[in-house]
Design brief:
By secondary structure, the protein is of the alpha/beta class. The chain has two domains: about 10-230, P-loop containing nucleotide triphosphate hydrolases (Rossmann fold), CATH 3.40.50; about 240-300, Alpha-Beta Plaits, CATH 3.30.70. It is built from nine helices and 13 strands. The structure holds adenosine-5'-triphosphate.
Length: about 325
């Protein structure tokens, strides 16, 4: 048994080679070349990266579903490549393709899975929480992507796991289902589960993650809380934007420092971007007073996680 305070998952220097690849003259291709990650109990840990960055490969190695070629992994204190019989029951997994039997119906399937575990969660409660009853009589092959996703999430939880892996949990969900799933993930986190999710969506990471690992081209390139990642940017790089609505045809640029760029995104909608300081806001307000303008709306936005990601990897997320 690991210490109660020990991390649920530690990935250190993961390496994964695939192949032989004909296009590389039969050589192997290194697709993971140095991912590290630590996931704690009672936290949502996100592995954030663009398509093809190596997220699925990493979490499949962490679960022992793919072999690794280097590095170490400790999942609940065990090496997932040599798991004990007990390890499987302590880990819940929701993979991207769901892996659900197509002709099964959601509720009988979940009840069947529940019977395989010693202390399962209530299937009825999970079905209610994830809105599964509405399509309980439909065969899985006829369900929409988002409905399948919810059944797959329920199936990953039914065994009452201590660690939960979720590969792209919001894929295919409509806004209402997404809210339902996010609420459940937060509750599970508060119950003390270690939740490891992969996502290419910054919004998911920002809304859910207590700790984020950014992966790019098979390696971890940054890690921290969302707030830490946002503040990593130096003040010189820090871009802030003030947008405001006012009568069209004004020229705020004359009143502002030259480092700031001013544009009108549409008539009457102004945007001031750059290393904005409090004194710039004062200048702007003084100028409004001088030209007799009261903006009808005003918004200040700081650097987003997207900017941090872009700066680190040169890759854009969707
Ligand atoms: N068996 C394989 N043979 C060759 N290339 C592979 C193999 N498995 C994965 N790759 C490549 O390795 C890279 C990482 O794949 P992976 O599925 O881990 O990415 P991902 O971050 O999960 O992407 P996505 O967000 O699109 O799911 C991709 O470029 C993929 O094409």
């Amino acid at each position: 048994m690991p210490e109660p305070t020990a991390p649920a998952l530690i990935i250190d220097g993961l390496i994964r080679d695939v192949g032989p690849i004909p296009a590389l003259d039969g050589r192997m291709k290194r697709i993971i070349s140095g991912v590290y990650l630590t996931a704690q109990f009672g936290q949502v840990t996100a592995l954030l990266g663009a398509n093809g960055a190596g997220k699925t490969t990493t979490i499949e190695c962490a679960q022992g579903l793919q072999r690794r070629d280097g590095g170490t992994i400790s999942l609940l204190g065990e090496d997932p490549d040599k798991p004990s019989a007990a390890l499987r029951a302590r880990v819940g997994v929701m993979l991207q393709d769901g892996g659900l039997p197509p002709s099964a119906h959601p509720l009988p399937l979940l009840r069947h899975v529940a019977h395989m575990y010693e202390s399962p969660r209530s299937v009825d409660e999970l079905a209610d929480r994830l809105g599964i009853r509405a399509f309980a009589d439909t065969a899985i092959r006829r369900l929409s992507g988002g409905q399948k996703q919810r059944v797959a999430l329920a199936a990953s939880l039914v065994g009452n796991p201590e660690v939960l892996f979720l590969d792209e949990p919001s894929a295919g969900l409509d806004p209402q289902a997404r809210r339902m799933v996010f609420e459940l993930i937060r509750e599970l986190r508060d119950e003390g589960l270690a939740i490891v999710l992969t996502t290419h969506l910054l919004d998911d990471a920002q809304k859910l993650a207590d700790y984020v690992y950014i992966v790019d081209a098979g390696a971890t390139v940054a890690a921290g809380t969302v707030a830490q990642l946002l503040s990593q940017a130096t003040s010189a790089e820090a871009q802030r934007t003030v947008t405001f609505e006012a009568p069209p045809g004004l020229d705020p640029a004359a009143a502002l420092r030259r480092e700031l760029s001013v544009s009108q995104t549409r008539p009457g909608s102004y945007s001031v971007t750059g290393p904005l300081e409090p004194s710039d806001l004062l200048e702007l307000a003084t100028w409004w007073a001088a030209v007799g303008v009261m903006p009808t709306s005003l918004h200040l936005a700081s650097r987003s996680l997207e900017d941090v990601f872009l700066a680190l990897s040169g890759t854009e997320l969707r």
